[in-house]
Amino acid sequence: MIKILVSDALSEEGLKILKDAGQFQVDVNTELKPEALKGVIKDYDALIVRSATKVTREIINAADKLKVIGRAGVGLDNVDLDAATQKGIIVMNTPAGNTISTAEHTLSMILSLSRNIPQANVSTKKGEWKRSKFMGVELYTKVLGIVGFGRIGSEVAKRAFSFGMKVLAFDPFLSREVAESLGVEIVELKDLFERSDYITVHTPLTEETRHMISTKEFAAMKKGVRVINCARGGIIDEAALVAAIKEGKVAAAALDVFEKEPLSPDSELLKLDNIITTPHLGASTEEAQVNVAIEVAEIVRDALLGRGIRNAANYPCLEAEVCNILEPYINLSEKLGMFSSQLVEGRFQELNITYSGEIIQYNLSPLTMALVKGILSPILKETVNFINAVSLARERGINVREAKSPKEGEFVTLIQLEIRTDKESRKICGTLSANKQPRIVKIDGSYMEVTPAGEMIVMQNWDRPGIIGNLGTLMGKHNINIAAMTFGRQERGGKAISVLNVDSPISAELLDKIRKTENVLEVKIIRI
User: Fold this and answer.
1) Residue 360 class from Cβ within 10 Å (0-12 exposed, 13-18 middle, 19+ buried)?
2) Does 132 fall in a domain?
């Protein structure tokens, strides 16, 4: 009998699917402490969690039989993906289950902001009748700016159209053609801030999106703008938001998520009448809870019974006999994608992937899945996985082309990625080292030897004497240790590419100094 442990509350509809399969022993125990879970996990083939259970490396290492971890929800910050991958455990989530509920909550927040509904309700229940105090505004003809136009963002747009709103969207992976077909105007972030009457964010929280709306961004907005966050706490700088509201720049805000949850009773956010707060209710509808329970039950059931793998966050679908051969190339593909995504400028239009060498005898779709997942991950985070990556790219108007080249080249095996955006076209090539570790070996025709890992400085510079010394001195002054350094050029004295692997994060101050260093043309920070 296949044993499944459900360690967080799951709707009965999901449990019924597992029990009705007739091949599972389903144990529900929502009271397990970490040590207790570590003690019993060795007996189970699958684990289903929500957000309460922390599936740490210690717990995973104690799991002798575990094949599948199912997360009923989107976020995977409570599951150690690296540890699960190392142990060959498939981790799956349910990114679509709460789409409608979150979109509807966002519209509820927008309406509440526009008509002062929470404040008027409190006042009326106190026995007051202050109609003039709660004068509202209409949504009709107003401009709604949506930051992040994935599943939830697009559903918000559909509902906004019904109110007669004009919708602007910022999403690096959304093509203009797809946006226009949906009736949405695609714009740069700066334009969205300047033109919007309402701004709502629907992006994952990453290093790049943390505090993406802060003092500078509020200063660029219209006076009287209204701001909504039902995505992730930390995308909006809460201190900067409070300041912008106090000075009258922002008319009102509605927040469902916060930088620290639960929200402290002493928070400044609770002291301002024109900030509406809710306790992370985006997915808290009966329907959403049932949807994610059904979805997680179905994907765990199918994975355990060999019916296919869906929503895999850390593993593409592979035939067992070729898994060991392709696994290092899957790792290479994902890291090549992550590196390239952060290197290029502009909106993605086309991905041309060419495989050559020994691997072309195999079905390479898992590598393409991994590469596209790597490209989308820096922005979409846990909403993208191996299984949905290619379809998500195509939904956004990005053409993905895969080709095999039988020609023998300079490398035993090579993966070449050509990315075309609305601003540029770049080629990045990767292969495996002798010990099967991923390497970036060519960038735009310049030969390199780059380990795509950790914090990296990627710099375009003139090939002039002193560039290495200047960089080394600058890193030393800021106590940044250089782990590895590689350079590539096509001709002597021309443009060159320099890549530094460093042991510590690069501050904004240091990045600015690097940009001002003599002979430096362009600098990017890449994190993998």
Assistant:
1) middle
2) yes
Last residue of a domain, one of 254, 277, 300: 277
Quick one: 201 and 140 in the same domain?
yes
- Non-local (6+) Cβ contacts of 485 within 8 A are 468, 498, 499, 500, 501
Whether 67 is in a domain gets the answer yes
Looking at the structure, tell me whether residues 309 and 244 fall in a common domain: no
Q: Are residues 214 and 122 part of one domain? A: yes
259 and 303 housed in the same domain: no
Residues 254 and 136 grouped into a single domain: yes
Number of domains within the chain? 2
If you ran DSSP here, which 8-state letter would residue 254 be given? E
β strands within 198-271, DSSP E? 198-201, 225-229, 250-255
Based on the residue annotation, tell me whether 128 is a catalytic residue of this protein.
no
pLDDT in tens, the chain (528 residues): 999 999 999 999 999 999 999 999 999 999 999 999 999 999 999 999 998 899 999 999 999 899 999 999 888 889 998 888 778 789 999 988 889 999 999 999 999 999 999 999 999 999 999 999 999 999 999 999 999 998 899 999 999 999 999 999 999 888 888 898 999 999 999 999 999 999 999 998 888 899 999 999 999 999 999 999 999 999 999 999 999 999 999 999 999 999 999 999 999 999 999 999 999 999 899 999 999 999 999 999 999 998 878 888 886 655 555 667 888 999 999 999 999 999 999 999 999 999 999 889 888 888 999 999 999 998 887 778 787 788 889 888 999 999 998 876 778 899 999 999 999 999 999 999 989 999 999 999 899 999 999 999 999 989 888 888 888 899 999 999 999 999 888 888 888 999 999 999 999 899 999 999 989 999 999 999
Is residue 280 part of the annotated active site? The answer reads yes
Catalytic-labelled residue, pool 50, 105, 151, 232 = 232
Domain end among 295, 315, 335 = 315
What backbone torsions phi and psi does residue 407 show, to the nearest 5 degrees?
-70, 140
Q: Does 237 share its domain with 121? A: yes
Same domain assignment for residues 154 and 248: yes
- CATH number of the domain where residue 110 is located: 3.40.50.720
232 classed as catalytic: yes
Dihedrals φ, ψ of 419, to 5°?
-110, 125
Catalytic member of 176, 195, 211, 280:
280
The catalytic position among 12, 128, 247, 261 is: 261
Structural domain span for residue 207? 99-277
Give pTM, 2 decimals: 0.75
